[in-house]
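Bench notes, afternoon.
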Amino acid sequence: MSKSKKKSAEMFQVGGVFDGWVLEAKLGAGGNGDVWKAARPGQAPQAIKMLRSVAPETYERFKVETSTLEKLGHMPGIIPLLEKFVPDEKSKATPWFAMPIAVPFEQYIQGRDSFEIVEDFIALAMTIETLHKAGISHRDIKPANFLYYEGQLCLSDFGLVKYPGRAEITPPRRDIGAKFTMAPEMRRSANAANGQPADVYSFAKSLWIALTGQELGFDGQYNPLSTLALSHHLGNTYTTTLDRLLEECTDTEPDRRPAMPAVIARLREWLAICKNFHTRNLTEWTELTRKLFPLGVPARTTWEGVDVICLVLAEIAKVPSLNHMFYPTGGGNTITAVSTAAEEGMIALHIGEKMVEILKPAKLTFESFGNDTSWSYFRLEAAPVAPTGVKNAINSGRTYEALTEISPGHYAPYSCWDQNEYNGESLPESARPAGRYLTGAFVFFSTRSAYNANPGTYDARHNKISEEEFRAYIAHHAKRDG
């Protein structure tokens, strides 16, 4: 090894001295340069980015980066340039610039929930919006270029930045940007592409990576109906608003992507929905109706047949805490699932983990009253069925039987459930408490509906009047509120 190479190798290692800086730890490395934690004697450490390869294109990007950071100054959301050394291209000295020490993204993300992440990404989006207003596009947005500094996520690495009047460095047909967050137009013709919608695309993919923890991202456009869905990663968190935003932001056509101000507004909207159960519940109820009626919500529609009724009720039960069911006997509950029952033509409405309400559905009707979906509801009519014959099971109104279902279709008195005993033995695992309805009507409203907010509605008034009378009753209140 020559003396110059040996000296260089010794200089670029922990404890080595580079241009008066003592190197303390390597913070990162790229194809053309390295970032070190370093300090001058008696001074606080800083992050030093030094250029290893001084090829013409690489060095031009380095000069663009340092000049851009100088112009931006101490703009919030940008890791500032503190000092620099940019020698003449013919110089053999290594170019460098210094930045504050910041927390890398992979360390920042640890332990943060989805709401905290989106809050911080909104601040990051506001930084990008400010750049876009100035005609600046970053063009290399990815988690590796996010640093947490002074209480917020910040952008770093402006080597691919583009702004008005800047000479194009990228040769034609050369792609630029991060592999897993790069917009498709940046792969095809980066030098001619508009960097601002490309930033939106990369921002959206970076947000998905942050929320899911999947470092490699995904290819193409986001699809909420695929394995990419945020719902697979965020549990019971409401995701629909985010799903639509990510889908639009990763559209292959740049002109169809929302601009950054709209992205910020919709991220705020998602947070507001998630943090307010009332807003979230009514939003999800509206989305349920749109899912059932994608071409337009009718004033009324009716389903008949066990299979289709189960499918519709399953959609009502699918979203946690979305629905509230009012019994024909008074009171209410939330159904969590729907299934066919053992008795032919009958279904089971699941309440929590074990309890079920069993009935023979005659029809399920949806009723709506214009654009205000908070008053829309479903009415389930139970066809008359004969009692099981279990002793003392029928209530005084002869509407339902209180039972223990020992095994599918095999009933015993409800007292068996309370006593955990049947024929002298403990109940089998298959046993569950069951209400078996002989007749009557159920109605389903959203949990945060005005109807459910009134305790007086638990008197089963919907079952004391006809279907048409109840619709007229709700229509009157919907019109008054409107």
